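Supplementary material to the annual report.
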Amino acid sequence: MNTPVLAPIFVNRKSFIELDARARAQSLFDEGTWKELVGPFDRIESPWLAQQGIAPQFDDGCVVIKGKIGGSRAVAIAFEGAFQGGSVGEVSGAKMTCALDLATKDSKAGKSTAAILLLETGGVRLQEANLGLAAVAEIISSALALRQHAPVITIVAGTVGCFGGMSLVAGVSSYTIMTREARLGLNGPEVIEQESGIDEFDSSDRALIWAIHGGEQRVGMGLADSLVEDDADKITAAVRGCISKGIPEKHRTEQVALYRARIAALDTSRQIAPPALRQEWGSLKGGVR
Amino acid sequence: MEQIEFSYPEAKRLIARRAHVGVVGSGDMEVLLEPNSEKGARVFITTSVNGFRNTWKAIFDRFFSKFDGAVRIHINDAGATPGSVLLRLEQAVEVIEQ
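Predicted assembly:
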């Protein structure tokens, strides 16, 4: 008698999280349409890490790939979370800025080019200090320039997450796609605990961390746009969906009054539970597209 | 951090393709394998772990006892163990010879 083998769906899906930055970026593009720019063979490494006794990486942890997604022009810029925590240094920051600026130039010339930012990053690379901070400022200004002409789509898939200055980049993007495993926040849990004490935030409490920074909460609150399963095909479909939606009528960061009012309405005399906040913010009209 | 170089002049077989594998994450490394314009093979290692020159030498002596390609190998290492180093090298060879 033949017994059918029942494999759970997650055994056969193509995990996105398990891919490295390069494979993640490649997986988004239509087959045979992409090429990598300033790749590892060009060996443009950080000049600062070696001076501090740290081995650099040939692409400085930033992968830039240009091609077509669902037939539309796009450039993907991916940070490698396994190298120096996906941190932004002088070189990796410059790669992202230049790629965004070239996309803006093409888009202005009538060849609309969307940018997809794959952010697995703790933010500025501390070893490159001010250069990293300057890079974040440049990236934000380039993303703001591009989003007027073509969508800027951020993917935070996990498991590093997106923190520090780069969370601001996610904030200014046109659309943000997250998985349940991903985290997004300005200050990471350990930083909050270090600065304000364990009573404020217990960084060993994983359930608490995901209840606040996790993809489900961020999308539920309207601070990110779509919650997608850890599946390369589903993430690609979500990206295609964002590209075909085009530039949103109003970006999240243009809705200053709305968010100011929401924050002013919070009752901070008591502890606000994450599900309550999600219900409150998620049900309000205007913030979620 | 330490920079180490080796030469293997006996590795003379011409190689046409190039490969990049790995990531400079904790306990891992990346390797670039490219055709060498000169005769023989050369190895350039940048590692954040000092004092393992002899171990690296033993790994590459073993690698070039089987592989005879005239290649330039560049490695950035963040503390890969000898087993991981050999796996990464074999992975790179697989890419250029598939």
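Residues 82-97 of chain B form the longest helix (16 residues).
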